[in-house]
Amino acid sequence: MLGTVGTLIGLVRALPQFIRLIRAKDAHGVSLDTAATSCVVSFAWTTYAVLTDQFAVVLATGLSGAVFALITLLAMKLGRQVTEVRAAPIWLVVVIAITLIAGSGGLGAILSVSALAANTPQVIVAYRERDLSGLSPTTWALTASDGAVWTLYGIVTGDVPILMNNLFQFSTGAAIVIRRLLWHRTRARFSET
How much is the pTM? Predict the structure, then answer.
């Protein structure tokens, strides 16, 4: 049941950001590094799930990785600079090397902190940039929800990498939602005056 709910959230969590970029043609507040790293991390989770026979994780992370790839490309088209991408290439090399050297156990160990690596650039951008108009609060609310569901899944299945990763997923997602809501409230207050 948790796998099904987590899969459904995972399938749609990045879509609001993608749709917002298409409609608004505005990438203000969107971390290109988070989008690119999330793409790498999602496909690394897909690999881990294949190696550990967890179909629900394969489906959710594979499709999520494809959407994050599209977000990355669209954000660059809308003005984000490729020089913003710092963590993604490092994570790509790390996950390939660890998988080749240590298999699913090593990959699971490194992936236990992957949400922290992927989402931290977005937390930084959300707190540094003044204009967050391009940032989808729905994507990050779904990200926090996704983290909560998969944390429970990790507890139930005893899968520590999934548990740890999704504790980070929940906390970083929640931090971004809070920042976006505060930005929106401040903006609304200034437009009233």
Answer: 0.89
